[in-house]
Amino acid sequence: MASERKATADPARSLALLWRTREPTSRSAGPALSVDRIVRVAIDIADAEGLDALTMRRVGEALGVGTMSVYTYVPGKAELVAVMIDTAYGEMPRPAVEGDWRTRLERIARDNLALYQRHPWMLRAETTRPVLGPHLMAKYDYELSAIVDIGLTDVEVDAVLTLVLGHVKSAARAASEVVDLERETGMTDGQWWQSHAPWLETFLKPGAYPTASRVGTAAGQQHGAAYGPEYAFEFGLQRVLDGISVVVAERAANR
Amino acid sequence: MASERKATADPARSLALLWRTREPTSRSAGPALSVDRIVRVAIDIADAEGLDALTMRRVGEALGVGTMSVYTYVPGKAELVAVMIDTAYGEMPRPAVEGDWRTRLERIARDNLALYQRHPWMLRAETTRPVLGPHLMAKYDYELSAIVDIGLTDVEVDAVLTLVLGHVKSAARAASEVVDLERETGMTDGQWWQSHAPWLETFLKPGAYPTASRVGTAAGQQHGAAYGPEYAFEFGLQRVLDGISVVVAERAANR
DNA sequence: GCAGGTGCCGTACGTCGTACCGGCCGCCGG
DNA sequence: CCGGCGGCCGGTACGACGTACGGCACCTGC
C-alpha cells in the first residue's frame, strides 16, 4: 500500500463518488452491494477496530462478498476512506445557532470533539487533502455561519475556524493515543508509565532536567492519566476563545 | 506492516536503543554499521522522499548492506522511527532564553515549525505515543524552562506548552499537505483547485452554501494558495498567545 | 591453532492493495 | 422467444511490505 494516496488520476471519478452521481440500476432486484452499504460496513470496522483493521478483504468478508467486488463500487481504498470521512461529517448535529458567538464556537468545538471520539480513525485518515464532499461543504458552511457576524473579515473568520478545529483535532489525537495504547498493550496509561519509569530512571542522570521532572510529575499527578487529555482540551479551548475575544473586542472598539 | 506499532513487548529494549546503551564493539575495524549511521541514512530518505519511501530494504540499500543487517541494530521499523524522531529533536537550537515570556514562547513555536518543515515526516510519524528519548526530554525541559515563571501552576504551564505545540503541529501539517500534494500530483495548489472546481460546480446546486462559497473564495484569493497555511499559522499563534496573556494577566492581578 | 561469538544477510512467509480476466445473469432489441 | 450485451461478481496472481529464521564468515581470546 505504501501511501494512502496515489496518483489519484481522476478528480471526476473521486468527486462523482463523493457526491454519489450514479443512477440506481434499473435491475429488478438491485445489486447486492452499493457504495452506501460498503461505506457503512467500513465505518463500523474502523470504529470498532481501528484503521489498521480496515482492509479490503475484511470489508468484502463483512459484506459476505468477494474482496474484488468492492472495487466495482469504489476505485480504491483511498477513495473509500474519503467517502467514509465525508459520511461521518454528515452525521454531525447542526442545530440552529443560538447564544453569543463564544457559546456557539464552543459548541462547535465540542461537537467536533465528539465526532472524533466516535470515529477515532478520522484522526489518522485526515492527514491528506480535505475531501471536498457534500457533507464537508455543509459542515463548513454551518460552522462558518455561526461566526461570520463577529466583526472580522472573511479571511479572519476562516482562520478562526481553522484555529479552533485544529485545537480540537490536536486534543482529540492526544486522547485517542491514550485509548488505543490501552487497547494495544492491555495496560492503562498509569500502568504503562509505571513499567517504563524505572527504566527511564536508569538512564537519567539524577538531577538532570529538573523542570521537566517537576512539571511532568505534577501534570501526571493532577489529572489521573486518563483525565489528562481532557484537561488539555478544556484549558486550550478557553485560551483559544480568550485569544479570539481579544481581536473581536479590538474590532468592536474601532468601529 | 499494518500498524506502525506492534505489541512492542519490551520497554527495556526500546528505551536502551533510544538512550544508546551499548558498548562500542572492541572489534579492530569496528562493525560497518551502527545505530547512528542507520538513523542518519533513514532520516535523509524520509526528508527527501517522505515516510512512505522509508522501507527497511531501502535503508539497507542506502547503506550498501543487506536488508536484514539493519535488524542487527534496530529491533524493527517502529523503533527506528522512534530513534529518528528523538534524533531530530536533538538538532533543535536551544539558545539561552531572553525577552519576555511572549517573545520566548513565540520563538519556541517558530523553532518547532522550522523543525517540522525540515522533517515533514515527523508530522505523520508522531501519531503514536511520545518517544521518551533523551532529546525529547531535553527539549521538554528547555521549553518548559522558558515559561515556568509566568505565574501559572505547573499543570497550567504544561497545558500552555501543549497548546502552543499543538497549534504548531496543526499548522505545519496543513502546510505540509500542500507541499506534498504538489510533489505527488505535479500541480501547484492553485492548479489543483482549478482542475477540481469545475467538477465541484457541476454537483453543487447554485446558491447552496453561500457562506462557505464566499468565505472560501475570499480566503483562497487573499493568500495565494501557498501562503494560506502560513497565514493560518501566524494568525493562530497570535490568538493563542493573546489567550495565554489573558490568564497570565489575571493571575498577576490577583497576586 | 582453535572455539566461540559477533556481524552480516539470503530465503521465505504472511499480509496488504489491486490488475486482470473470465463467468454469470437479467434485460432488451430483434 | 431468443440471442447477445452490459453490468455485477470474484478467483487468481503480482509486487510491494515487515520481519522470522538459520547459516556463513571472520575476528578475538585462549
From TrEMBL, chains A, B:
Keyword list, A-Z: DNA-binding, Transcription, Transcription regulation
GO biological process: negative regulation of DNA-templated transcription
A GO molecular function held by the record: DNA-binding transcription factor activity
Keyword check for Transcription: yes
Superkingdom in the source lineage: Bacteria
Stretches assigned to the HTH tetR-type domain: 32-92
DNA-binding region: 55-74
UniProt keyword DNA-binding, yes or no: yes
InterPro entries attached to this UniProt entry: Homeodomain-like_sf, HTH-type_TetR-like_transc_reg, HTH_TetR, Repressor_TetR_C, Tet_transcr_reg_TetR-rel_C_sf
PANTHER family the UniProt entry points to: HTH-TYPE TRANSCRIPTIONAL REGULATOR RUTR, TRANSCRIPTIONAL REGULATORY PROTEIN
Name of the featured protein: TetR/AcrR family transcriptional regulator
Species: Micromonospora arida
